[in-house]
Amino acid sequence: MASLRVLLRGFRGPLLAWAGCSAPRSFAAGANFEYIVTEKKGENGTVGLIRLNRPKVLNALCGGLIMELNQALDAFEDDPAVGAIVLTGGDKAFAAGADIKEMQNYTFQSCYYHNFLARWDHLTQVKKPVIAAVNGYALGGGCELAMMCDIIYAGEKAQFGQPEILLGTIPGSGGTQRLTRAVGKSLAMEMVLTGDRISAQDAKQAGLVSKVFPVETLVEEAIRCAEKIASNSKIVSAMAKESVNAAFEMTLAEGNKLEKKLFYSTFATEDRREGMTAFVEKRKANFRDQ
Ligand code: CO8
């Protein structure tokens, strides 16, 4: 009986959590969201833009926001016009981490039984390239979310950190793994063990971000990059993305084997023929994603 009481108490965590961040309605693609804003950008609407939008709490990631984010990602993934996605936040914060007020009363039992965080890395399943445009704080889950993206562009005032240790916990959605692969053991260990943040410039130097821009032009630059990506063949971009990501999962020999298979596979596409033919005929390729 006592253990049943403990278990039931554990289940209250996620239920209470919705009080601070109400459960999302069910959305059709393109409908209004509560915690994010979505738009199509680029000359022909080839870029899906997702903006995290809980500015009062620095875009703290609550369960409802993650559900909406996943819905928006799926909608852009299914949209044949969209070739790449940009994920951004506000000027002050990309996201200051998972919602601490939501998590405050969670228990081990509730986290374990309800698979807390199970859907928080849905972003990594998206085939279309995703660019994170990070202004302000990218902390804890916010830093982890940025690192799940394929490319990170940072505004010059951005700050990256994994401060979970200061809350008596540790990163839970790839922070210790992706950060270590991106910046190396010493800096990752320092950030994870002290909770100290690094600047956009240091993040660039360490290899966490690929480019740094002024705050006001960051999103525009990310959209420009996404448009460039979207002008290529979607099917071939997906193969390129799969191949680069394999570098994190496989040995060099296995990764090279997969790369070769995917390279051969591009020869099964019409877009590969069109790309090479266009080069020979000295014209711009007209990819049809076939
Ligand atoms: N959760 C909930 N609310 C938050 C969070 C957060 N992570 N961050 C900020 N807020 C709220 C504050 O409570 C405050 O709300 P209110 O006005 O109601 O008091 C509001 O946002 C503004 O924040 P501050 O007043 O603190 O603003 P400052 O400019 O003084 O400070 C900081 C900005 C430094 C970013 C500070 O807010 C801070 O330290 N925030 C917490 C950062 C943090 O510890 N993040 C890690 C959270 S744990 C985590 O992310 C686990 C990851 C699990 C996996 C997720 C996978 C994607």
Low-confidence stretches: 1-20, 23-29
Strand portion: 5-15%
Q: How many distinct beta strands?
A: 10
SSE run: HEEHEEHHEEHEEHHEHEHHHH
Number of helices: 12
Order of strands across the main sheet: 1-2-3-5-7-10
Determine the N-to-C terminus distance. 61 Å
Mean pLDDT: 91
Q: Which structural class matches the secondary elements?
A: alpha/beta
Shape: globular
Percent range of helical residues: 40-55%
- Tell me about the largest β-sheet: 6 strands, mixed
Radius of gyration: 20 Å
What small molecules accompany the polymer chains? octanoyl-coenzyme A
General description of the model:
The structure is a single chain. By secondary structure, the chain is an alpha/beta fold. 45% of the residues lie in helices and 14% in strands. The chain contains 12 helices and 10 strands. It has helices at residues 2-20, 63-78, 100-103, 108-113, 141-148, 175-183, 185-194, 200-206, 218-230, 234-246, 252-266, 270-280; strands at 36-41, 47-52, 84-88, 93-95, 130-134, 137-139, 151-155, 159-161, 198-199, 211-213. The strands form 2 sheets. The chain has a 6-stranded mixed beta sheet with strand order 1-2-3-5-7-10, with helices on both faces. Mean pLDDT is 91; it is low at 1-20 and 23-29. Octanoyl-coenzyme A is lined by residues 57-58, 60-61, 96-101, 117, 120, 137, 139-141, 144-145, 163-164, 167, 171-173.
